[in-house]
Amino acid sequence: MESTHFYRVLYVLVHAIYTIVEVIWNATLWIVREFELIHSRYKNVRKRLFTLSKTPKHLTVIVGHDDCSLRDLTNLIIWCIAVEIPYISFYDFKGKLKKEEERFRSMVESQKHSTDHIVWHRTAGTYKNGFVGRKIHVKILTEEDGRENIVNLTKELAVDRDRANGISIESINGWLLERFEFPDPDMGLVCGGRLHILNYPPWQLRLTEFFRLNDLSNITFSSFLDYLEMFSKCEQRVGT
Amino acid sequence: MSWIRNNDLNLLQKLCVNVLKCGPVPRHVAFIMDGNRRYARKTNVQKAEGHSKGFDKLAECLHWCRELGIKEVTVYAFSIENFKRSNDEVEALMQLAREKFQKLFEEKDKLMQEGVCIRVIGNLCLLPDDIRKLIAEAMLLTKDNTRSILNVAFSYTSREEITQSIRSIVEAVQDKSIEVGDVSEELIANCLYTHLSPDPDILIRTSGEVRISDFLLWQISNTELCFTNVLWPEFNIWHLLGFVFKYQRSRCLQDVYKANKPQPNRNHRTQSFVKSFERKRIQQLELYARA
């Protein structure tokens, strides 16, 4: 009995100390970042961009428990256009972003370069062809794009004998891809204190490289480049 | 090296284990044991030796988990994609599996006494006959043990698992055991290889890779992902304690999220389908064990 009390006291103490250290550490990081911001805003960006050995084809951003500002998300889209990432998606398990989609869309349209083209994937057939300039595909994902899609596909297959005979990993992948519209994300930025995927569409996450973004607010192009550099260093072996 | 290890922790380790046990401890931890080959290269030994070291680490790690009160552990031992490796390496890995499963029977008494249940998750059809037989026997032998559960993902990928689940459900609708309306997320989960396990609370991947590589994709929807640079054979108890500590710090968030999830509803028809599905699995194992 004595010893359990002792352990409990230690438990509370250790967690308390950690919390204090964490707060101080975050404050220091914040100060350092602000300092860097003032002094080296656009330094070396061009050079760093040039050294990226690869960039993701589909960047997916998992918005965590905290809300994020549309302005930061807009910045991400603009930067993705700049580094020629063709697909970006935002996953918000709370569904809030989906509700604000119109506002988000008009904000992006007002910020982008006039020759850039943004393809919003909401309902099928939103494609517009025949334009010149840079292009990016944008999609807002919710929980419904994940497991629910797999449930619906299973229901369809159950009443369609022809398709049911052809069930294989490849065919399921093809059918789910039709619904998901985007290639599997190869890079995932997870916002918030912990790496949780929060019910993200499971099938698509097979080979996604994950990076945790402590705080999406005030993310700079330079720190975005940090993540792209980390991504470009990842090497995939796929089993072999 | 054996499956059950009882090497004692030192005083400081024991103290830390006891302190952490005062808070919430994960029920289920999943590991992607990556880095055996890099370890072999680093220490100038054969690849097979690296894999063997990896297995020893697993046994050690299971012991730490038991000490911490982590009831269930799932490890990614061999992916279906790994069949693409060189013949020599695949054969060496199969030989290791063969030896370890044989060893398991030698340690039968200890295993039963500790109440360890071993389940192999994956597509057993792809394995050599003798290994499949050994696995089936091991699973049947330990299936009623409940104190500590070890799931070994062997010849496994998550996409294959989900595809198999979809296939079983489609077949069940076609032969009228269930109706289309019964298909739900819960039903798909019930037909996965892992249907007997709760979802993992944390997933640990070693050796610096930051992806999930087709492991438990369906099951980790609310799991904390932990990536660490250490190679699997060099993983030690402090790494594990660190992850448990971090898990304790993020617990409050998880609870908020879980509360949003809808409660599953199951009707009689689905229940009896799930039960008969489970029975069929056991029968299949018995068939493999007799082969």
TrEMBL record, chain A:
GO terms for molecular function: ditrans,polycis-polyprenyl diphosphate synthase [(2E,6E)-farnesyl diphosphate specific] activity. Its EC number is 2.5.1.87. GO terms for cellular component: dehydrodolichyl diphosphate synthase complex; endoplasmic reticulum membrane. SUPFAM superfamilies: Undecaprenyl diphosphate synthase. It comes from the Eukaryota. The chain crosses the membrane at residues 9-32. It is found in: Endoplasmic reticulum membrane. It catalyses: n isopentenyl diphosphate + (2E,6E)-farnesyl diphosphate = a di-trans,poly-cis-polyprenyl diphosphate + n diphosphate. Keywords: Endoplasmic reticulum, Magnesium, Membrane, Transferase, Transmembrane, Transmembrane helix. The keyword Transmembrane helix applies. InterPro entries: Nus1/NgBR (IPR038887), UPP_synth-like_sf (IPR036424). It is an enzyme of class 2 (transferase). Its cofactor is Mg(2+). Pathway: Protein modification; protein glycosylation. Belongs to the UPP synthase family. This is ditrans,polycis-polyprenyl diphosphate synthase [(2E,6E)-farnesyldiphosphate specific]. It comes from Phyllotreta striolata.
TrEMBL record, chain B:
The keyword Membrane applies. Pathway: Protein modification; protein glycosylation. It is an enzyme of class 2 (transferase). It catalyses: n isopentenyl diphosphate + (2E,6E)-farnesyl diphosphate = a di-trans,poly-cis-polyprenyl diphosphate + n diphosphate. Its cofactor is Mg(2+). Its EC number is 2.5.1.-. It is found in: Endoplasmic reticulum membrane. GO terms for molecular function: ditrans,polycis-polyprenyl diphosphate synthase [(2E,6E)-farnesyl diphosphate specific] activity. Gene3D superfamilies: Decaprenyl diphosphate synthase-like. Pfam families: Prenyltransf. Its main location: endoplasmic reticulum. Belongs to the UPP synthase family. With NUS1, forms the dehydrodolichyl diphosphate synthase (DDS) complex, an essential component of the dolichol monophosphate (Dol-P) biosynthetic machinery. Adds multiple copies of isopentenyl pyrophosphate (IPP) to farnesyl pyrophosphate (FPP) to produce dehydrodolichyl diphosphate (Dedol-PP), a precursor of dolichol which is utilized as a sugar carrier in protein glycosylation in the endoplasmic reticulum (ER). Forms an active dehydrodolichyl diphosphate synthase complex with NUS1. This is Alkyl transferase. It comes from Phyllotreta striolata (Striped flea beetle).
